[in-house]
Amino acid sequence: MMIGEVAEKSGFSVHTLRYYEKIGLLPTSHRDGGGRRSYDDDVLRWLEFLSRLKDLGMPIRDRVLYARLRTEGDSTIEARRRLLQTYRDALAKRVISLTETLDVLDAKIASYDTTGTPLKGPRK
Amino acid sequence: MMIGEVAEKSGFSVHTLRYYEKIGLLPTSHRDGGGRRSYDDDVLRWLEFLSRLKDLGMPIRDRVLYARLRTEGDSTIEARRRLLQTYRDALAKRVISLTETLDVLDAKIASYDTTGTPLKGPRK
DNA sequence: GCTTGACTTAGAGCACGCTCTAGCCCCTAG
DNA sequence: CTAGGGGCTAGAGCGTGCTCTAAGTCAAGC
To answer: Which of chain B's ends, N or C, has fewer CB atoms near its CB within 10 Å?
Structure first.
């Protein structure tokens, strides 16, 4: 696969993929005869996982750290586990908080719908 | 209340509160004799709501829009409802997606814990 | 053999959302 | 009456994470 196809399938832009390689989120690519990057399917699964880490709010430097640990092999498994655990716990709290926010919004929207104004009625 | 107390109670910095006023997220403050901003308790509830909107991912320009609509009175209620509804729906999807991510992380962490390595065993 | 289009690099530029600095003023306590 | 701890303004600066540009190379089809 050339980089354009990876971009299309992963949802990351070509620019972003090269940037990710430069900062160490993607391993140094194999090159074809003409010097172009050549990928196999594994990269798509890795990018999907990276995009989850990004989406849950892990900053790029910790994604880079995780990527680096991964390349260093089995001896870093415990460190990787701890890193993921930290973000997992933060995420669990975040999901709870966002669920509360969903309720707050629903209440607000309902107050707009039913009274025509949230300021009339028994206070708010 | 002076700005320092609002900062302490709301969790936003003094700098940020002045910035929020400048861009229209907070209404123009009343001033005391010496030209200092003077707030009443309402601002804390508004800041708490703003911080929820921020937390769910509403960009600052839409928070400013919402704040502006609010100052324009009841005629903007329908517009405000639509704005909140849009972000509410996106948030609902996001909560689902983050919940999936939580499962993915738990599975990954479990694989680290039980096998000592995620690469051994029946293929990952 | 030439055009087209996807690829290459290094490095500049950008949007967002603050965050901080400089130089000033004002109020209160000792 | 002075020191200290707020507060004030305008505007510069910054961290994050891309995003884009310029100038060039390469491979395949007509």
So the answer is: C
